[in-house]
Amino acid sequence: MKKETNITQISLKSIKKGPVVWLTGVIHGDEHGGKVIIENVFKKIKRSGLIKGELYAFPLINKEGFKKDLRLIPQTKEDLNRCFPGNKKGSLGKRMAYIISKKIMKTKPSLVIDLHNDWKNSICYVVIDPIRSKELKNKVEKIAKNTGVVCVREKNLKYNYNSTLSGHFISKNIKSLTIEMGGNSKKKNIEIGTKVVFNILMDLGMVKKMKKYVNNKKLKNQIFDYFEESKISKKGGIEFLVKPGDFVKKGTKIIKIYNEKNKKQFYIFKAKESGVVLGYEDLNIIKPGMPMIAFGVSKTL
Ligand SMILES: [Zn+2]
Hints:
This protein is α/β, with parallel strands linked by helices. The protein folds into two domains: 2-219, Aminopeptidase, CATH 3.40.630.10; 225-297, CATH 2.40.50.100. Helix content is 24%, strand content 26%. The strands form two sheets. Strands 1, 2, 3, 4, 5, 6, 7, 8, 9, 11, 14 and 16 form a twelve-stranded mixed sheet that branches. Helix 1 (33-48) packs across helix 6. The relative contact order is 0.14. Bound molecules: zinc ion.
């Protein structure tokens, strides 16, 4: 039983005291990018040195899911990123969440970064959970703004955020954020993800200063609100009229829905707010209830 909850942990410690940062990858077994990024980051820092603090990682949390390329824990079909805070004697997912939390908390973390992959067609962006404490919110937003990529605030309160890894640490008053690194296994996304992690470590003074990666200068100091468009009344073919990373004005035509048989268009979606396209569904056919496209929206754009 114990073997099932074994998660490989790696670490680098500087002789100089400083921030304690955690990187976690592959909590969703079909999102492989985090593992590669963590390996890259550790390899680079082993060469250049950790100036101060401690860097820890769980590069491959959902190992069984990873082997089978499944999002969930294959044995129990649980989403491990909805199992927090976890439970010592609960299901496999709850036990794993409990152990992850306990091991991370033991190191007195200053920041926990959870690495995910999004739809195939998406850009790299940072997600901030809803945070009640103003002080903590300001600190997390400051880190997020310095990542060089689009930052979005999660607003959808459909589920309990404390059940996710980042939300769990936020609830414990620890700085935490999620990085969605775009689609799986794209070399470019791995490069960007690695740079984003380095931007954060550089800001914390843990690695030597180098040129900062900025994806788009337009994004500077802007935090967007996450918005997902998913209201479609009937099944149809889907065509996107915008690309991930595009800035669109309110009212811009974004999606065409058409009849699969006669290809006749029956609906056009327009952007409800101005914003940046984060990504969209990989499929060509869309069914009611499926999220189609995600935006970071802003009234000031
Ligand atoms: Zn994920």
